[in-house]
């Protein structure tokens, strides 16, 4: 299928010969088999779960400081006597892991396995014993947190969780080499996802390092841009590819492993992505922040472009947006670049490429989303820049 540009907000969509039903099929995958129908129905069950069963649990309460001064809430006793509201099933190749299995994988979510906080929860390292003398498989586990006292936002967690599973099971996402592979999940007493990725370093870890040189910085940028272009062509907006959510291997190949705000679009009319999101404030586009204030929470393809522009600024200035809170990172970047506060400022062979990349980044973060380039245009620009050679004072230092 010929690549189609995402539509600029406010303009009618132009789909050519691609019908709305075809777009829906591309986005959601083809659910025609009995197994796929079963999976779809199961995810709908998850979406409509009563979150109280997961929130009002004894282990959640015992980890709360309130447990020292308050008696055990009646809700906990009541929900403990209930069975699990839904029985997990294997979702194709994605296995359902029981609560006990999750405890085994993560050593009961021990502090030694803790990585960092994540949107809606925390990330942990884990190991799966595959037997037959094979070494344990290293995985990353994302667990949703339910803390006491009860937070009203927890009521939306089943929707978030079901939505994330939908995206991760999407054949376009599941088969993409730049996306961390989901191998398991848990809905037994907890919400958790198990990814087949060894998270040693993230782009956030690398950005301030001097040995993260210009060439690998641009390699990361190019891979992220290609990934976004691919998904925009499939009518999927990732909405979450911030520096802390991009894993990098020893050859600077990326994998995206956070998908909380992944959303899709299957409309011939107004190209808006509606979602309820949290975290990563400094990566939000101005139009998204406006929509939040107006209780619409709308994410556009151009919002992805804005976030990519921020990533280019981070790579160029060797500074993460999350570390500049609550400063407006774009305004800070303009001043910092003018003061020559950038990666390896004394290496003149990359002075010109830095300037060109900075200019491209500023196009991506323009206030008016209609003025931002499409991802296919960004990839073409990066390709053009990469043709220069270092020895000719080119773009890859």
Written account of the structure:
With 397 residues, the chain is an alpha+beta fold. It folds into two domains: 31-196, 2-Layer Sandwich (Phosphorylase Kinase, domain 1), CATH 3.30.200.20; 201-392, Transferase(Phosphotransferase), domain 1. It is 38% helix and 13% strand. The protein has 15 helices and 13 strands. The chain has helices at residues 20-28, 34-47, 52-55, 58-62, 74-80, 99-106, 157-169, 171-174, 203-206, 214-233, 286-293, 301-317, 329-338, 351-364, 375-386, and strands at residues 95-96, 114-118, 121-128, 137-144, 181-186, 192-196, 201-202, 236-237, 246-248, 254-256, 263-264, 273-274, 298-299. The strands form four sheets. The protein has a six-stranded mixed sheet, sandwiched between helices. The protein has a three-stranded antiparallel sheet with strand order 7-9-10. A two-stranded antiparallel ribbon has the order 8-11. Helix 2 (34-47) packs antiparallel against helix 7 (157-169), helix 10 (214-233) packs antiparallel against helix 15 (375-386) and helix 14 (351-364) runs antiparallel to helix 15 (375-386). The radius of gyration is 22 Å and the shape is globular. The model is unreliable at 1-24, 266-273, 275-279 and 390-397 (pLDDT under 50).
């Amino acid at each position: 299928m010929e690549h189609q540009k995402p539509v600029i907000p406010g303009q009618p969509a132009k789909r050519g010969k691609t019908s709305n039903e075809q777009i829906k099929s591309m986005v959601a995958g083809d659910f025609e088999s009995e197994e796929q129908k079963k999976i779809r129905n199961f995810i709908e069950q998850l979406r409509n779960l009563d979150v109280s069963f997961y929130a009002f649990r004894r282990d959640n309460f015992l980890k709360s400081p309130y447990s020292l001064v308050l008696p055990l809430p009646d809700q906990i006793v009541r929900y403990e006597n209930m069975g699990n509201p839904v029985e997990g099933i294997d979702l194709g190749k994605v296995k359902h892991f029981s609560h006990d299995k999750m405890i085994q994988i993560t050593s009961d979510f021990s502090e030694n396995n803790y990585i960092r906080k994540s949107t809606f929860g925390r990330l942990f390292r884990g190991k799966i014993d595959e037997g037959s003398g094979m070494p344990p498989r290293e995985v990353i586990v994302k667990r949703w947190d339910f803390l006491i006292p009860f937070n009203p936002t927890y009521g939306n967690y089943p929707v978030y969780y079901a939505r994330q599973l939908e995206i991760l099971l999407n054949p376009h996402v599941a088969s993409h080499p730049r996306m961390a592979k989901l191998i398991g999940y848990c809905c037994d007493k907890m919400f958790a996802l198990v990814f087949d990725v060894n998270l040693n370093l993230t782009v956030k870890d690398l950005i301030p390092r001097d040995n993260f040189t210009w060439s690998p910085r641009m390699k990361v940028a190019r891979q992220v841009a290609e990934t976004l272009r691919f998904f925009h062509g499939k009518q999927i907006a990732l909405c979450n590819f911030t520096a802390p959510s991009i894993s990098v291997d020893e050859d600077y190949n990326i994998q995206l492993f956070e998908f909380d705000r992944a959303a899709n679009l299957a409309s011939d009319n107004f190209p808006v992505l509606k979602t309820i999101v949290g975290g990563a404030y400094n990566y939000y586009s101005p139009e998204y922040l406006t929509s939040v204030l107006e209780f619409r929470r709308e994410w556009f393809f151009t919002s992805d472009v804005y976030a990519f522009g921020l990533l280019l600024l981070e790579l160029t200035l060797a500074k993460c947006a999350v570390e500049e809170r609550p400063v407006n990172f774009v305004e800070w970047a303009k001043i910092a670049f003018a003061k020559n506060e950038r990666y390896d400022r004394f290496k003149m062979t990359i002075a010109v490429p830095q300037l060109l990349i900075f200019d491209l980044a500023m196009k991506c973060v323009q206030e008016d989303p209609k003025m931002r380039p499409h991802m296919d245009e960004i990839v073409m620009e990066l390709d053009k820049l990469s043709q220069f050679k270092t020895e000719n004072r080119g773009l890859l230092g």
